[in-house]
Every structure is written in C-alpha cells, then in structure tokens.
C-alpha cells in the first residue's frame, strides 16, 4: 500500500529517490493521495531516499534521507552517488552493505546533532508543514507557523474536514476533499470576537468573527489547547498593534533549545520552536504577575518544594520559581505565604543537611544580606537548583560591576542631578494632621518583627488584614515599594534614575510641553505642589519616565499619580513606583489611545451584567454602562474620592493590583443600586454616585456622622461581596475579549479619520481607500515581525518622529515597506529605480517616511487618472530631487567622471547628490556636497563599454523594435518645409514647439547647426507620421493645460521645470520598461520610438538660438580685430566646414556637456497623446 503513494524518480542498485503523489502532479491517484493526506493529517516530507535490499527471502527498505524541496533531496542523491556507491561496489555480502550504510548514516546524524544550528531546531516534519503552509496561503517565508490542528469547518451546514494553521500574524484553514478545496486566511488584527460554544449534542465550537463574516470550527482533538493558543495569539497581535512593535523571538531561548537538541525529548522535538517560545512567554507573564516583578524578567524554571516558616515552625508546601534576578516561593494554599528574594540580596547558597524526615529532605539554605536565612526543602533535584542559583548570582555580580563602572564614567555629569533629588518624602516637610491610632501602629511593628522587613519579608495573610485596617504614615512608602515590586527593581538598577536625568538634560521632547502645562494642576490644594521642591521633583520624575518609555511618554493623570507618590516616598522611589503603575499594574492605561482604560470599562460592564443584571440594564439605558468608572480607574479613585480615603485604596491597590478597583467600583454601584434604578437620566445617576463618593472618609470615628461612610468598611464589604467573584484570572480573560473589540473600534475610527483626511483630490472611492489601508496595515505588521532591532521597553530609546499634520497614525511608510507595496499595486512592471524616484518625489519633508495620503494620491493618479495626469507623474519622477545623477553611476563611464565634475551640466546642482542612509532621501537644494551615500542600484542595465548613442548608454539599447538604427536614419527635422508648429519664442529665451526656425530649409539652417549638416532618427517613410504629430501638438498642449490657455499670464500655473536630455532619456527608458509585458508591445515600441525621435529633435531647437548668437558675437569680434590690422585666422570662419566631427545628438558626452537641450511637460504629454496606441495604453484604468 505504501509503494502506491510514491513515485520513483531516480534508481540505482542500492537506493531509490521517490516523490510523494499529489505533490506537483495531477491525476486520479494524486487526487486520492492528496485527499487522504488532508483528511488523516499525514504530512510526510514530499521527497525521500530509500535504501533497498531485495532477496528471495525478504525485502528491506530503510529511509535514509527526507527533504521538503527537490533541490535539497537532489543534493543528498548526488552525495550518495559520489561518496557511497563507489565504496559499496567493493562489498561482496548484502549484509555488509546494509551494515555499512546504516553505520554511515548514523555517524552523519551524530555529527549533525553535535553541531546544532539555530535554523535546525525544528524537526524535518515541522519544516515540511511550514513549507506547505507558506505555499498554500502565499505567505512570505519568514512568516512563523506556531502550530496546526485537525478540525472541521462548517461551510453553512456542510462540514469540511481539514487543518487549522495558527501563525504569528494569521489564522488559516485548508481543506481538500476530492478536488474541492477550501482556503481561509484571516489576519489576527481583523478578528473582533473569539468565543467557544459548548452545545449539548455537538462538540465544542470555536467561533471567529471578523468585520465581514463569521466562521465556526469544531471537531478538535484537544479543544482547550487550541482555544488557549488562539486567544494567546490574538492577544499578542492586539498588544503589538497598540505598542507598534513586532513579534521578536527569544534569542536566549533559541540558543538554549539548540543546545538541548541532541537530548531525547520527543515532546519538545514535535513542538515548533515558536510554540515553545509562546509557552515560555505565557509562563513568564504569569510569574511576573504573581510576584510583581519587572517587565523584562523571564522565568527560567520552577519546581515543587517546601518552605520552612520560622514564625510557626512549619514546612509549607508550594513551588519555587527561579529567574535571572529573583528567587521566589508561593504556597499551594492561596495567600498563606510567599517570599521574593532578589539575587543581589542573596549572600550565599548552601546545601542543608536535614534530619531525613519524609518530605523535607534535599534542603537548600539561602543566606541573605540582612543576616536572615530562608530554608527550602523537598527539592526533587537540589544540585541542579543550587547550580542555577550560583550561576545567576555570578552573572548578576558581573552585571553590577559593569553598571558601576558605567556610573563612575558619568559621575561628573550626574553629580548635579543627584544633588537636586529629594531624599525624603514631601510629607516630612508638609506633615499630615491625621494618622492611624497607636494600637494599629503597634500591630504593624509586631508584624515586621515577626515576619521580617524589607523586600525579602514573609508575606502572609496578616499583611493583607493590616492593609485593610490602614497603614501608618511613616511606613506607607516602604509598604508601597515592597508590595508593588518597585523596591526590588530599584535595587537592581542602582543609579539608573540619575543617569536618565543626565541623559535627558537639555533634550527636547514632545511630552515636555504637556508636562509643564499639567504640573500646577497636580493636587493644587496641597502646599507641596504650590511652589518649589514639589513641582521640581514632579517635573523630574515625569520627564525621566517619558525619556525611559517614549511609547507612553506622558499622559494626563500621570501627574496626579506622581504627585501622590512623592508625598510618601523619596524622588527616586516615586519614579520606580510610577514605573510599576504604568508598566505592570495598569498596562496600556497611559498611552496615547488609553486602550487599557477602555478595555477595563468593557470588562467592568461584563462583570456588572453578570453580578447585577438589573442595574446593568438601567446603566445601558442611560448610556453609562461602558463609561461610569472611567475617571475612577484612570486616577485610581484619587480624583473621585477625598484624598485621605483614596490613599487607603492605594494601599490595597499596590498589594492586589487592578482587581481592587473593580471590587470597589462594584461595591459603590451595589450600595447605590436603588437610587440609580430610580434615576430619570444619566445626569441624575452621576449626581447620586458623586454624592456618595463625597461622603467617604478615612476616619473610622466619623462613620455615621452626617452620612459619612468609613472607607475601610467599604473595602471590607467589597472583599466580602466580590473578593471571590472577581479575580485576576477572570479579569485577564475578559480583557482579551474586550481588547479585540476596543482595538478594532479604535482602528476603524482611525481608518475613517485618515480616509477623510485624504481629501477630495484623491480619485479613489472610500471602499478603495479602505482596501489600500488594510494592505498597508498588513504589510506594516509583517514588517514589524521581520524587524528585530526595536529596543525593549524601558531601555531609554529615542523618541519617535513627530506625527504628521494629517494624523496618519502609525502606518507611515519607510522605503522598505513602500518598495514592497508600491510595485505590487501597479498594473505595469516597473524598474526598481522608478520606485526609488517615486519615494523621493513623495518624501517632501525629507524624513524618510510617507503618509497614507501620499501613497493614496500617487496610486490614484497612476491607476485612475487620465493620461495627462499619469504622464505628468512619470515626468515629475525624473526631475530633481526625485532624479539623482548618482542613479547613473553604473551607466556613466569612469572616463567621463572628471568631465562631469569640471563642466556645468544642464541639471540642477542637487541632482548630483546621493541619498542618505538606507532610504532614498531627497537632495536638498542648499547642500554643497558633491556626493553622498548612494542607494542600491538595479542591476538590469547592460550597456556597451564604448557607447555610441545615448539610447545604448542609458539602457535603451535594443528597445527600438521595428525602427532603423538611430545613427543610420536620414530624415531631418529641418526637412519639414510646411511645419504647422509656428508660435512665438518662449519666455525663457528658448524656442518652443512651432518655432519659425523649424520651417526653414536645410540650406537656411546651416548657420544654426554647429556643423551645417542635418541629423535624423527615423527613415523617410515616417515623414507623414511626424507631420501628423506636429499638426496635433498645439491643440493637445492647450487641452492638457487649459488654465494656461485661458489666462494670459501662464506663470501663475507653476508648471514643472523643464527636463534635460539625460532626464528625458531615463524617462523614456521607464516608459519602455512599462511595455515589457504588454501583448501589443511591437506597435507600442514603434510608437514610442517615433514620439521619442520627435522629442529628441525638438529638444535640440533650444540650442540653435544660443549657437547663432555665439556665432554672431564671434563674427563681430573678428570684424573688430580685422579693423585693427591684426591677422585673422581663416579657419575660424563659420562659413567654412569644420575640421572635427560634430557630436551626435544623444551622444553621452554631448548629454553631459549640453546645458541647453530641454523639453517641458506639455510638449511630452502632447506628443504622446497624438499617438493613438500610446494614448490608449495610458488611458487604461
């Protein structure tokens, strides 16, 4: 049966190369094999090599090589033919041959495992699936496939069995059953809803909703695993969309996996590296959330163990977590006990000899710098854990030494900033009038004595109870630092804040103006922020954070949070608390889109609907369901509740995170439910809530007096009523659901705004602009995934460019993205050099970035514009600064470089400048440089070493099909006696179309041409065509520029400048490139040759008046000299023939020397439109 599924392609006496049926072939058998592979998920590599040993007793076939691509398998086959077959011919026994082959193959595999490559960490089966994935859905090779699952897609009521492919950027499905194929490709950023349905009679169903359609998938082997991965990838895509970053593989994990490749771990080898990477990210994120650790911390591993608690002499069962900078423990029973130990607080790690009691053997003693010790027992592999801890401690020591050396280098610059810092909380300078009672202070002192103090204290349920009661003023800052993780992060980054201040000194940032505007709005009633130290410290921490994290920069409400932090902490501590709030406790709250706050409003509405459905219905009726708690969450109730009471909420917020805000908001709604249900409008409901929050007080003795409500009682009730119903797991689950919806709504709103800003000048309809927007968006996301150079959050990256005036969002295009999109959307095949020039034309601000409006207007002109508009775009792309003489460095011979530099060429000075960096920047007209950094040139241009004409010199050799050689033509422009092109001289002194000189006879033109002889480009049979073109020239010019025809002063229309000969020839080469794939290319090439010939001759007419003037001047000089009695050289007479041959029109040397040859846009447009075939070609839309 297996042999019928394969086709033999190469055979020798011992080996056979086979190809899988259904791979690149047709026929009934291939159709059946492809269907079997699709339904049963058998995805073997399409090529293999077998060793075959056939005898009378048995037939042995052993797979010795497999490959995804034919080229790879052929290389293996050639190696076998060259290296194995000569040796095998010397063996006499088949058993010896088999033994030798197997031994050789095993040795090759061992050598490969001993030298693992980062690209070979996935098995050959995974690479075969990846190749098929890219081919089926036409995706780039760098698109990363995470996993695929067999499932069923419901096409109406018809099930389609196939595979669901999940990649970093796409959700795809493919089914092939007896020739009927179903192919679905969805971008994660287009998905608005992900839900799982669990009907009674049918298996679980995954429902995927986009803006246009709904897709249902079921029959998964492991639905929970699939749904978890789908939600994780969708969440990752939404975060990347908000943060404007791409997916970056974990390089350290890839190196680790490559080193482990030789070990026998079948489960890991069958899993792709990307999925392992995502699993590691998920575990690290849970680890950071559990212990409030820095954003960059990555979990290395965890293991079950027991912690000895000295306060009750027990061994508590739990898990030990180890990362590069932390050792953490949490009990199996929720909130029983947890410990966080930064590596810089660890003094030593030693094995501990236990008594051998069951469950507490294999002990590890961790000694801390505060003279305390933490005992961990029950470790399954104590030696490995101890080795990891010692290695991490050594690495951290090296990092700290490097950090100190860097600090010493910048110590002089940092001295000024360090002197200005506030060393103490502002509450010591401006003390509070109230504090907790002495009884509660004694409880806190006893708790610190029993459970320890500082970062490494034992965190038990007793800490939570005391936080509910209140925190003494002198301990509040320390408790906030411990519970939020800011203390540990600050200890690992000694001197970082001062260094940020030094780096940001005298640096302009867009956020500075907003910070200055909001400084005096921060707690204006508090004396600390009415003058001097408080305002200066707040300015410093906000500026330092804006410099640390430009993605956030500064957002309103950060000033209020920062001012409160300064009241209870020193300046550096307040900065690290602000980092904890913005990056861990309230992620995405303080960016420009306030996505996190909007997402949490949706989460809050869902919780209200589930717990208080009647109240949710009323709030929805009033239009308050998704905004009632927005101001509460943005400032953590600091703006909604009296200051002292709000500080009590902050105590628990730093301990429990954002769930505290949901609990308190739910309790406020619950206690005001009846009043809200009786409200007649939204204003009355808001008055009810405002009146309630105004009555909250921090003093317990005021409870009940004048309707005052003790905040501690509100917090206790919130934990009693909603502590179990609302947890962080539920919040994160609902955040994913609403993050999809919020981000998509923001994207849709942004898209509508951008499309509206494009304006009526663009010829695209709104639907076409939406399609273009989505194409750019998809390419932008794919580019982000390919880009790995973006610094991580918190590394002090440079601020992003200022947004353009049209607010074109983050989807601005640099040259790399533009070069991917622009040629793909054009109906013609364009040279890469034209793409570069188009980018230069649009990059008017010379920043290397284009807006959506730029590319939309350009494409609309090229795709939907009239012929005049299309040709004008091509014309402008061949004028400075879009045109660059550096583009022709591969064309202009080296022998002419000195000539080019010493002679004034008929182009602007900035044409000779190169482009900047990797982006084809425009050349500034004020630049004095001769050459710059050149962009990469296309390699297609093939020219002769000794050019004879400009066509062959500049890439047009061989394009003039159907016409005689340019140098062999005999028809002269001056032979057209009855030329209709008669008009007045141009304003610039040149002779435009219709100059009277064109009507002269050849004899009359002897004083205009330098040599007195005529030149020609086409034969005499084309004379009628040339006359026909000239007759229609004038009317076509008036048609292309009606404003100039109707107005006597044409200078007001600002026409584009004239084009010189080199630029014109490059323009014509671009036109020839457009015709390469046209079915009517012979006729079009012929028409282009005729029109190009006319225009080359027309450009020459501008030179003749200048040459005639020079001739008259020379004659006058000879007369003056003759009159003075001096001898006149007769050889200089213009009437005598010249000794040297005159340069041919179009010759490369004459192009560089010629500063008078020129044409304008109207002449070129009119000439092209007079040729019917060319007019029809450019009229296609």
TrEMBL record:
GO biological process: system process
Keywords: GTPase activation, Repeat
Domain of life: Eukaryota
Region annotated Disordered, chain positions: 916-938, 974-1016, 1039-1058, 1124-1147
Positions of the Rab-GAP TBC domain: 470-657
Gene3D superfamilies xref list: EF-hand, Pleckstrin-homology domain (PH domain)/Phosphotyrosine-binding domain (PTB), putative rabgap domain of human tbc1 domain family member 14 like domains, Ypt/Rab-GAP domain of gyp1p, domain 3
Biased composition range(s): Polar residues: 1003-1014
Composition bias, Basic and acidic residues: 1135-1147
UniProt xrefs under Pfam families: GRAM, RabGAP-TBC
An MF annotation (GO) of this entry: GTPase activator activity
Protein name: Rab-GAP TBC domain-containing protein
Organism: Toxocara canis
Lineage start: Eukaryota, Metazoa, Ecdysozoa, Nematoda, Chromadorea
């Amino acid at each position: 049966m297996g042999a019928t599924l394969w086709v033999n392609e190469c055979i020798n006496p011992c080996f056979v190369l086979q190809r899988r049926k259904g791979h690149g072939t047709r026929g009934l058998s291939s159709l059946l094999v492809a269907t079997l592979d699709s339904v049963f998920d058998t995805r073997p590599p399409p090529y293999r090599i077998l060793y075959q040993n056939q005898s009378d007793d048995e037939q042995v076939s052993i797979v010795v090589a497999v490959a995804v691509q034919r080229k790879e398998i052929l290389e293996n086959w050639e190696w076998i033919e060259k290296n194995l077959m000569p040796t095998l011919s010397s063996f006499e026994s088949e058993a010896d041959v088999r033994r030798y082959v197997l031994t050789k193959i095993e040795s090759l595999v061992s050598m490969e495992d001993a030298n693992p490559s980062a690209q070979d960490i996935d098995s050959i089966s995974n690479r075969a699936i990846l190749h098929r994935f890219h081919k089926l859905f036409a995706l780039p090779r760098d698109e990363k496939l995470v996993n695929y699952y067999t499932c069923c897609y419901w096409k109406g009521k018809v099930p389609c069995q196939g595979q669901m492919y999940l990649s970093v950027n796409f959700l795809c499905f493919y089914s092939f059953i007896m020739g009927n194929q179903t192919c679905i490709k969805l971008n994660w950023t287009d998905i608005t809803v992900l839900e799982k349905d669990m009907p009674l009679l049918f298996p679980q169903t995954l429902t995927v909703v986009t803006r246009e359609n709904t897709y249902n998938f079921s029959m998964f082997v492991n639905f929970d695993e699939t749904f978890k991965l789908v939600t994780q990838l969708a969440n990752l895509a939404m975060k990347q969309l908000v943060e404007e970053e791409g997916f970056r593989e974990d390089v350290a994990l890839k190196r680790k996996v490559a080193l482990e490749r030789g070990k026998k771990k079948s489960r890991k080898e069958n899993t792709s590296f990307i999925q392992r990477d995502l699993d590691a990210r998920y575990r690290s994120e849970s680890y950071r959330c559990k212990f409030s650790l820095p954003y960059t911390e990555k979990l290395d591993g965890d293991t079950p163990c027991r912690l000895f608690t000295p306060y009750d002499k027990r061994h508590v069962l739990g898990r030990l977590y180890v990362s590069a900078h932390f050792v953490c423990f949490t009990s199996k029973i929720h909130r029983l006990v947890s410990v966080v130990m930064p590596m810089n607080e660890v003094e030593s790690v030693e094995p501990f000899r236990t008594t051998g009691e069951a469950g507490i053997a294999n002990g590890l003693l961790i000694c801390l710098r505060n003279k305390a010790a933490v005992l961990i027992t029950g470790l399954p592999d104590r030696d490995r854990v101890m080795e990891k801890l010692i290695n991490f401690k050594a690495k951290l020591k090296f990092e700290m030494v490097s950090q100190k050396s860097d600090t010493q280098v910048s110590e002089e610059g940092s001295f000024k900033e360090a002197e200005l810092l506030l060393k103490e909380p502002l509450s010591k300078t401006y003390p509070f009038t109230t504090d907790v009672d002495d009884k509660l202070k004694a409880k806190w002192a006893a708790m610190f004595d029993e459970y320890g103090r500082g970062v490494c204290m034992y965190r038990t349920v007793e800490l939570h109870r005391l936080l509910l009661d209140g925190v003494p003023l002198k301990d509040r800052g320390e408790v906030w630092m411990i519970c939020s993780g800011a203390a540990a992060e600050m200890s690992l980054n000694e001197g970082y804040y001062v260094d940020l201040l030094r780096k940001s000194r005298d640096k302009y940032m867009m956020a500075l103006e907003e910070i200055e505007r909001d400084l005096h709005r921060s707690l204006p009633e508090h004396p600390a922020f009415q003058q001097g130290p408080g305002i200066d410290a707040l300015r410093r921490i906000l500026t330092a954070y804006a410099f640390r994290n430009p993605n956030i920069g500064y957002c309103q409400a950060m000033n209020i949070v920062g001012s409160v932090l300064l009241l209870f902490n020193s300046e550096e501590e307040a900065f690290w608390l602000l980092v904890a709030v913005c990056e861990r406790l309230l992620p995405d709250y303080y960016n420009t889109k306030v996505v996190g706050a909007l997402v949490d409003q949706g989460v809050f509405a869902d919780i209200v609907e589930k717990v208080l459905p009647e109240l949710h219905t009323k709030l929805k009726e009033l239009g308050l369901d998704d905004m009632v708690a927005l101001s509460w969450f943005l400032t953590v109730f600091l703006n909604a509740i009296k200051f002292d009471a709000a500080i009590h909420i902050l105590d628990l917020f730093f301990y429990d995170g954002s769930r505290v805000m949901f609990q308190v908001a739910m309790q406020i709604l619950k206690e005001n439910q009846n009043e809200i249900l009786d409200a007649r409008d939204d204003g009355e409901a808001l008055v009810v809530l405002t009146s309630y929050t105004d009555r909250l007080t921090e003093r317990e003795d005021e409870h009940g007096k004048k309707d005052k409500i003790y905040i501690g009682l509100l917090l206790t009730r919130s934990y009693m009523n909603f502590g179990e119903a609302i947890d962080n797991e539920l919040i994160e689950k609902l955040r994913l659901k609403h993050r999809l919806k919020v981000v998509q709504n923001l994207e849709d709103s942004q898209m509508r705004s951008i499309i509206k800003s494009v304006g009526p000048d663009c010829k695209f309809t709104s639907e076409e602009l939406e399609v273009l927007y989505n194409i750019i968006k998809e390419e932008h996301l794919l580019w982000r995934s390919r880009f790995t150079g973006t610094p991580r959050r918190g590394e002090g990256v440079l601020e992003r460019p200022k947004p353009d005036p049209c607010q074109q969002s983050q989807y601005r295009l640099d040259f790399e993205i533009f070069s991917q999109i622009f040629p793909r959307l054009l109906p013609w095949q364009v040279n890469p050099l034209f793409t570069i020039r188009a980018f230069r034309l649009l990059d008017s601000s010379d920043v290397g970035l284009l807006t959506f409006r730029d590319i939309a207007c350009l494409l609309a002109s090229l795709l939907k514009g009239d012929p005049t508009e299309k040709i004008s775009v091509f014309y402008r792309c061949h004028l400075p600064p879009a045109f660059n003489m550096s583009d022709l460095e591969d064309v202009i011979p080296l022998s002419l470089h000195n000539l080019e530099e010493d002679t004034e060429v008929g182009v602007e000075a900035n044409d000779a400048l190169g482009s900047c960096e990797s982006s084809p920047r425009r050349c500034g007209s004020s630049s004095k440089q001769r050459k710059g950094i050149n962009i990469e040139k296309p390699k297609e241009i093939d020219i002769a070493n000794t050019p004879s004409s400009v066509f062959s010199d500049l890439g047009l050799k061989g394009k003039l099909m159907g016409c005689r050689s340019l140098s062999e033509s005999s028809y002269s422009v001056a032979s057209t006696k009855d030329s209709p092109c008669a008009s007045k001289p141009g304003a610039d002194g040149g002779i435009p179309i219709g100059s009277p000189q064109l009507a002269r006879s050849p004899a009359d033109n002897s004083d205009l041409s330098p040599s007195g002889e005529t030149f020609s480009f086409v034969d005499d049979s084309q004379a009628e065509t040339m006359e026909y073109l000239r007759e229609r020239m004038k009317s076509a010019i008036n048609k292309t520029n009606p404003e100039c025809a109707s107005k006597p002063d044409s200078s007001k229309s600002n026409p584009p400048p004239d084009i010189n000969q080199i630029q014109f020839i490059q323009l014509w080469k671009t036109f020839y490139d457009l015709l390469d794939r046209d079915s009517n290319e012979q006729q079009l090439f012929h028409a282009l040759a005729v029109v190009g010939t006319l225009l080359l001759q027309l450009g020459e007419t501008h030179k003749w008046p200048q040459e005639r003037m020079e001739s008259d001047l020379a004659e006058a000089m000879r007369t003056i000299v003759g009159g003075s009695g001096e001898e006149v050289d007769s050889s200089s007479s213009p009437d005598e023939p010249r000794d040297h041959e005159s340069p041919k029109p179009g010759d490369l040397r004459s192009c560089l020397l010629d500063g008078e040859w020129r044409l304008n846009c109207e002449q070129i447009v009119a000439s092209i439109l007079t040729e019917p075939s060319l007019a029809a070609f450019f009229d296609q839309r």
